[in-house]
Design goal:
Layout: H1 4-16, H2 20-33, H3 39-51, H4 58-72, H5 89-112, H6 116-119, H7 121-132, H8 134-151, H9 156-180, H10 184-216, H11 219-229, H12 250-253, E1 283-284, E2 289-290, H13 292-301, E3 305-310, E4 315-318, H14 346-357, E5 363-370, E6 373-383, E7 389-398, H15 400-403
Antiparallel strand pairs: 1-2, 3-4, 3-7, 5-6, 6-7
Length: 415
């Protein structure tokens, strides 16, 4: 008898090659003979086929995997994820999923009622706002969970699941536009498609992603993930407690140093008698001498986002401004840059870096409309005195104000 992983491989291969008749027969055999298949088997087969070049690209891979998952979903057991303590990243994701499922249920009820758009328009509008928050749920996965999995050799979610995230984000925007335009004919199918996509993602998370993650990641991995979540935020729930089972209160550790608050202190009047001159403890740069504290402050208060990727394509730094255009969290440090961008646009980043490394280009610029802002994005190649490539910096800024300037302002005007 053919084993279940071989059957699954045959199904995916047939679908990838467009041989639906053969795939249908293989699916029937699978459903009749396989009682259960675990998440590891599914991801192992999918990744092996991807490595073998069976899929034409990431989108093709995603399409086939989505179809197969819909077919064999009932064969994948639901594992008990209730043991994760409050504040643990998985516990937080599951709490958000509970609300997401409730939103999907409400969406189904509205779609089933042909009169609801007119009679309950405020409910349709509220769902548009609520489904838009899915972006935060997905951002935490992309920026915190996925990098940790990549370090364990599991890059599947960084490409395939991220692609599905972007599809669902697109569905949410399509639905929101239909509701805003009060286009009933477009809103009904848009909401139905959105709730299906959002619900199916919760199933994938709970049957595949979270069980696999719990197997691969250590307690320290999860502590690091939780430590970076604050920079991205949460959706539908209150801020979770700062889960860290290894943390010891300073009083118990024998330290007299008070716990520092994350809130910035109020501005203080400068007192030169309490200050230390830069020449003490400074770092000699190509021009000038400044301290590490000053370097951090310069980047922190720059009115734009800075990300540095070294010559090995690893993210080594980003500045922690208060109002970043694109979210960043500590999980991306050391991450391959190709996993830091949506799969649909990563080829552009790779093309830029390849041209920089070959010495063909030194700069690339883009400008986009993003969340009611005009965003200007620049990439600059870094080279040493010998001309050797040493990495790239990405500069991103909300240029809406600059774009709207007219005339001149030569006098100070703080009013």
């Amino acid at each position: 008898m053919t084993d279940k992983k071989t059957l699954l491989r045959q199904i995916m291969t047939s679908l990838a090659h467009g041989d639906t008749d053969t795939a249908d027969a293989q699916i029937a055999t699978f459903m009749d003979t396989v009682s259960e298949i675990n998440a590891d088997d599914v991801t192992e087969v999918a990744q092996s086929l991807d490595t073998a070049g069976v899929f034409t690209d990431a989108s093709h891979h995603t399409l086939i995997e989505q179809r197969v998952f819909g077919i064999i979903d009932s064969k994948i057991p639901v594992l008990d994820l209730s043991t994760f303590p409050e504040g643990h990243p998985v516990h937080t994701f599951l709490a958000e999923n509970t609300v997401i499922k409730e939103l999907c249920q409400r969406a189904q009820e509205l779609v089933a009622d042909p009169n609801s758009f007119d009679a309950l328009y405020s409910d349709w509008a509220m769902l548009a706002s609520q489904f838009a928050q899915l972006d935060i749920h997905y951002l935490r996965k992309e920026n915190q969970l996925f990098p940790a999995l990549e370090k364990r050799g599991f890059s599947h979610p960084s490409t395939i699941m991220w692609t599905v995230h972007d599809v669902i984000r697109g569905m949410a925007k399509t639905y929101a536009h239909a509701v805003e335009a009060k286009d009933k004919d477009a809103a009904y199918p848009a909401l139905d498609e959105l709730q299906r996509g959002a619900f199916e993602m919760t199933v994938k998370e709970e049957k595949i992603l979270f069980p696999k993650s719990s197997q691969l990641l250590s307690q320290n991995d999860w502590i690091e993930i939780r430590g970076g979540e604050d920079e991205i935020g949460w959706c539908y729930i209150d801020k979770p407690i700062l889960w860290n089972p290894t943390w010891t209160h300073p009083s118990e550790a024998g330290s007299e140093t008070p716990e520092m608050s994350g809130a910035p202190a109020a501005p203080q009047v400068f007192n030169p008698d309490e200050a230390t001159r830069t020449s003490v403890g400074g770092i000699n740069l190509e021009v000038g001498n400044i301290t590490p504290e000053q370097i951090n402050l310069i980047f922190k208060f720059m009115p734009f986002d800075v990300t540095f990727v070294d010559e090995f394509d690893e993210v080594r730094y980003y500045n922690k401004g208060d109002e970043r255009v694109f979210p960043r969290s500590p999980g991306i440090i050391g991450r391959q840059v190709r996993y830091c961008h949506p799969p649909k646009s990563v080829h552009v980043v790779e093309e830029i870096i390849d041209a920089f490394k070959k010495g063909e280009r030194d700069e690339a610029s883009f400008w986009i409309n993003f969340r009611d802002a005009f965003v200007y994005i620049q990439y600059f190649a870094l080279r040493n005195h010998a001309g050797h490539y040493k990495g790239v910096i990405e500069i991103t800024q909300d240029a809406s104000t600059v774009r709207g300037l007219e005339g001149e302002q030569r006098l100070l005007d703080w009013e």
